[in-house]
Amino acid sequence: MIVICDYCKNSFERSTSRYNEAIKFGWQQFCSLVCQVKAKENQIEFLYVWKDCGKKCSRKVSETIKSDRLFCSIHCSAKYYGLKSHNDHVHVCKLVGCNNFVSSIDNRKMYCSLECLKKYQKLSSYTSESVINHIRGFYVQNGRIPLKYELGAIYAPARHHFGTWNKAIEAAGYDPNPVMFAKHYLAKDGHKCDSMAEKIVDDWLFEKKIEHQVHVSYPWKNGMKCDFLVGNTWIEIFGLEGNIPRYDALKKEKLNLIYQYKLKTIRLSLKEAYSTKRLDERLNEFYR
Questions:
Q1: 3-class SS at 225?
Q2: What mean pLDDT is reported for the chain?
Q3: Cα torsion 280, 281, 284, 288: sign
Q4: DSSP 8-state assignment for residue 252
Q5: Domain residue limits, the chain
Q6: DSSP state of 151
Q7: How far apart are CA 94 and CA 56, in angstroms?
Q8: Half-sphere exposure at residue 154, Cβ-oriented, CA atoms within 13 angstroms
Q9: Three-class SS of residue 237?
Q10: How confident is the model at residue 235, as a pLDDT?
Q11: 14/90 Cα distance (integer angstroms)
Q12: d(Cα 288, Cα 278) in Å, to the nearest integer?
């Protein structure tokens, strides 16, 4: 299939298995050893002087991309954020996801603001048992474990009580969803699906008695495949849209080719694929 190099942005051919492996583990993909070496050069450490104290600091280029506030120590960071003194106890706000510093003489002040305290109290209103009951209730109703955005109200409490969403799933007695491409799902009609979203759409088509094919190669034959083909309509589920830059680049390339070949397509988001109501709306032309 055609892949975009993460360094020079040129396209190159790569086997589907190698591409899926890189997506699974979050690896960058390069068209040549030269691009791979040049990309690593951007990770080299460099020295700079922190203006507030004059000390020399060592940081990687990748760190400067993530933040323009680099400090030589936690004491300088405390001064930068307006805390009382570097002699105070300095720590990070106790609210999960808040990275603000907190300064307190007796180390009993755990939150950076009243707003964070109120959020923490709201999270604490959900007990660990109620989180587990929500997850089990969803499973009983839908026959599968929920994704974190499907039970958005309990996602933060789940992290609060169990540390991560997957640990909350395990506490409820279920196995977490596998990493993308790590496991194949078997649809009701026997089709092998690469994700739970594909299985849900495949089962929907099967229950509506709509003939369909899966993983069909596009006419331009460069390794790209669509998720489903119903008659002359190509159906795509863009499950990683907005999460991985190279996935978005390949999506753009695929859509350009679809436009050039004038193919009739239906593009489904992950939320639409997981909603029976939305599938009824988007795919109603096939069973009217």
A1: strand
A2: 76
A3: positive
A4: H
A5: 2-41, 84-121, 126-171, 185-286
A6: T
A7: 31
A8: 24
A9: strand
A10: 93
A11: 49
A12: 15
| Segment 190-236, tens digit of pLDDT | 898 888 888 889 999 999 999 999 999 999 877 888 999 999 999 99
In which residue are the tokens 């109703």 written? Answer: 141
What are the Cα distances from residue 74, in Å, to 68, 91, 105, 122, 160? 16, 9, 16, 30, 25
Residue 277 has pLDDT above 60, yes or no: yes
Q: N- to C-terminal Cα distance for the chain?
A: 36
Cβ neighbors of 229 (< 8 A, separation 6 or more) are: 212, 213, 214, 216, 235
User: Strand 233-238 to strand 225-230: parallel, antiparallel, or no bridges (unpaired)?
Assistant: antiparallel
185-286 carries CATH number 3.40.960.10: yes
Please report where in the chains the tokens 């299985």 appear, as a residue. 199
Measured CA to CA, the distance from residue 57 to residue 45 in angstroms comes to 10
Q: Are 92 and 100 in contact (CB under 8 A)?
A: yes
pLDDT higher for 124 or 112? 112
147 phi/psi in degrees, rounded to 5: -80, 160
Residue type for 25, please?
Answer: F
